[in-house]
From TrEMBL:
Pfam families: BetaGal_gal-bd, GHD, Glyco_hydro_35, SUEL_Lectin. This is Beta-galactosidase. It comes from Oldenlandia corymbosa var. corymbosa. GO terms for cellular component: apoplast. Its main location: secreted. One of its GO terms (molecular function) is carbohydrate binding.
Amino acid sequence: MASHSILTLFALIFVFKFSFVLATDVSYDGRAITIDSQRRILLSGSIHYPRSTAEMWPDLIKKAKEGGLDAIETYIFWNAHEPVRRQYDFSGNLDFIRFLKTVQNEGLYAVLRIGPYVCAEWNYGGFPVWLHNMPGIELRTANDVFMNEMQNFTSLIVDMAKQENLFASQGGPIIIAQIENEYGNVMSQYGAAGKAYVDWCANMANSLDIGVPWIMCQQPDPPSSVIGTCNGWYCHEWEQTNPNAPKMWTENWTGWFKSWGGSDPYRTAEDVAYAVARFFQTGGSFQNYYMYHGGTNFGRVAGGPYITTTYDYDAPLDEFGNLNQPKYGHLKQLHDMLHLLEEALTYGNVTNMPMDNSASATIFSLNGTSACFLVNENTTADNTITIQGNQFVVPAWSVSILPDCQTEAYNTAKVTTQTSIMVKRSNGAESEPASLVWSWMPEDIHDTVVEQKGQRFASQLIDQKAINDASDYLWYMTSLNLDKNDPIWTKNMSLRVNGTGQIMHAFVNGEYLGSDWAMYGTFQKSFEKNVNLNPGSNKITLLSATVGLQNYGPYFDLVADGLPGPVEIVGRNGDETIIKDLSAHTWSYKIGMNGLEKNFYSSENSPPTWQTQNLPMNRNMTWYKTTFKAPLGNDPVVVDMLGLGKGLAWVNGNSIGRYWPSYLAVNDGSCSTEACDYRGKYSNSKCVSGCGEPTQRWYHVPRSFLKDGANELVLFEEFGGNPSLVNFQTVVVGSVCGSVAENNTLELSCHGRPISAIKYAHFGNSQGNCGSFRKGTCGATTDSLSAIQNSCVGKESCSVIASGNVFGATNCTDVPNKLVVEALC
Ligand SMILES: *[C@@H]1O[C@H](CO)[C@@H](O)[C@H](O)[C@H]1NC(C)=O
Ligand SMILES: *[C@@H]1O[C@H](CO)[C@@H](O)[C@H](O)[C@H]1NC(C)=O
Ligand SMILES: *[C@@H]1O[C@H](CO)[C@@H](O)[C@H](O)[C@H]1NC(C)=O
Ligand SMILES: *[C@@H]1O[C@H](CO)[C@@H](O)[C@H](O)[C@H]1NC(C)=O
Ligand SMILES: *[C@@H]1O[C@H](CO)[C@@H](O)[C@H](O)[C@H]1NC(C)=O
Ligand SMILES: *[C@@H]1O[C@H](CO)[C@@H](O)[C@H](O)[C@H]1NC(C)=O
Ligand SMILES: *[C@@H]1O[C@H](CO)[C@@H](O)[C@H](O)[C@H]1NC(C)=O
Ligand SMILES: *[C@@H]1O[C@H](CO)[C@@H](O)[C@H](O)[C@H]1NC(C)=O
Ligand SMILES: CC(=O)N[C@H]1CO[C@H](CO)[C@@H](O)[C@@H]1O
Ligand SMILES: CC(=O)N[C@H]1CO[C@H](CO)[C@@H](O)[C@@H]1O
């Protein structure tokens, strides 16, 4: 008994310690978020837990910490957690508690953006579709039914986090929480109810008593109990409306998302660094990268509609968790610099000195020492800035940071971090056959296109949201009786369907008639195709396939999905047109595909009827299955889907998302062959690539989905395609490039693999980019290649000084010498 009570006492002391002694006080003033009364510079990065796997989290968060971040930000994804009202899922990669504990274990803070509206290119902006179907509900406004549901879910999340002592006030990692999301962008369209709703959000959030500040992003003039924050490519011109709240930036877009039919976004490291440095120069103290790791839209979580399965975002960590160099390293150097200057930036006296030609200097002085930020906003011309008697050349569109106002320690446009070019390689799957062996099965569509067997009936066309997003697929079936004396017989007849821009396939009397789809940003599309009908009964079957539901905009939740109609038979003869509107006919509806319902994608419940003979090519509505061995090693795995049309894919029963390699990125001339210029304001149409190529050819198969021995890949091919080219590859660094000015050190690393060869090395004024370097007008006469080969080949990493002593004198007179190297890994 005695020992038991001593144990209890120890347990009590332990609990006491953790709930009180380690509690962190988080507050704020006009300069910064304060942690235990100290003003802080906080660098945060978004990693959305469902866009990777729980097995990937520790590595991603560790890399974020090594990249110089203080905090990880995530949204909470309501529709993933509560797919059916009051039925919850917090398993696997939805275990946000485990995610936050992983953040805590790495010693980082967390920013919890509960929303629960999250936008995020996520299906329906994170709202469960069942909300839409609740009687009397209106979303994101002062409506009791909605507010009750929002409060119920928000409370649940807060309670779960409290239960695990995850708020800083309890000794946990969460220092900031967010309610609603970018409501200020749409609020005016909700009138007075919108304002009332925002006030209610703030009050409701504060009533949850979490002991750390609540924020609202993109909310001009927010309620005084929450902090308003900025989102955007740049936020240095944004000012806090509340003088007692700090300047905070919740979404610094490191790149952009991608849509089916869209090109590949790219934002330079120079420009992201410029935006960050400008923000801190102008008094910012908290900023978050959206995204730091974008990841993958597994399953059906992509929103849009038409957001791709990859959500790479050109973030500092790529879709698979690899360092996206030089962005990752260049920003890490900036983070180190900002942390070094934390006190000066948050406590120092600030002097702004505007100068000519779009230049300015800001001096942060503290206790007699000072730090300087020099900016040149001119987009074409370098600028010489004189500060405290010294002259500094500041390149166009860049910020120099001088920690002592005497020496330049960092310039946003001078990238010294290597560039890493990632490649896909087919390497060493043990005894993998040259090509995969496939079996197949037709999706049985006889019951819909011929028998028209429905599960529910209506005398109208229904919006696809009526099925609570149970599937991408909804069949619309009706029949049309044509009398043989009907005047329409003399006409040229067609089927006309007014749709929402989602995918539609039409079948008439059991025969495929045609298909139609759109692209990101299209919410209405009309289909019309000639049709042969028979006297008597005709069967019209339409299949609607959603590619994610709308996630953004005022009243985005009301945007129509599926086939709102009208559906018409149009008979034309010269000027005469006869229209038979089928919209009010009796329609029967069927949700989903038979193979989905029968779990064809999961080997456990798979029926034994997969066929191995006569493998069909380019056949719509077809299931394919193969087995494969996992590529050796630990490099990230992708499956190359070139040759396929569009559909859904599973590995060992885990959905890896929608695939659509047949959708080529539009070739609209936006992809320039010229090198991307970091100078000038970025937008998502700048520096894009991939025009005319498959929007997404490779699909991430997380290592944790794979096992030793045979793995199973199952495809549901909706459009028709050729699976024979499908193969598994790993993502590895293919080559690395570095470029440094004379007397600086060039460092190269093949990310843990040996450098195999030097492809290019020159000390002088090289031209071009990584992969296409060439000698310029001048340089060293001696051969730079062999010097680099000796120092680097066979090693995982190497460093060399760009010195004339090593590489020989150059004949460059009016341009500076640079050492430029491309190494193969
Ligand atoms: C949410 O609503 C359910 C009833 O539907 C109720 O039982 C539960 O207590 C509510 N949860 C919270 C946190 O309010
Ligand atoms: C940028 O610099 C050029 C060359 O000095 C000058 O002509 C131009 O006016 C400047 N632009 C701005 C916006 O300062
Ligand atoms: C800021 O400037 C004022 C006035 O010159 C001075 O009194 C104060 O000590 C300075 N504060 C810091 C932190 O250097
Ligand atoms: C600046 O002075 C304040 C007050 O004297 C002191 O608390 C602080 O530690 C000093 N900071 C530095 C960087 O010397
Ligand atoms: C029927 O109409 C369509 C479009 O209205 C036209 O393209 C087609 O040539 C016509 N066919 C006949 C046989 O008139
Ligand atoms: C077609 O559907 C859209 C909704 O997607 C609707 O706004 C439009 O009015 C419809 N067109 C016609 C001709 O009814
Ligand atoms: C590099 O260092 C050498 C030797 O110290 C010096 O002569 C040369 O001027 C330096 N070059 C530059 C560009 O600073
Ligand atoms: C430098 O030397 C190279 C090789 O001798 C020559 O081709 C080049 O024209 C020279 N450049 C200058 C600027 O003198
Ligand atoms: C605050 C801010 O910079 N907002 C901008 C974010 O980016 C969008 C799209 O580029 C702009 O329209 C906003 O003004
Ligand atoms: C969308 C699509 O690819 N549909 C195809 C379905 O199959 C028919 C008949 O083989 C093709 O004509 C369609 O192009």
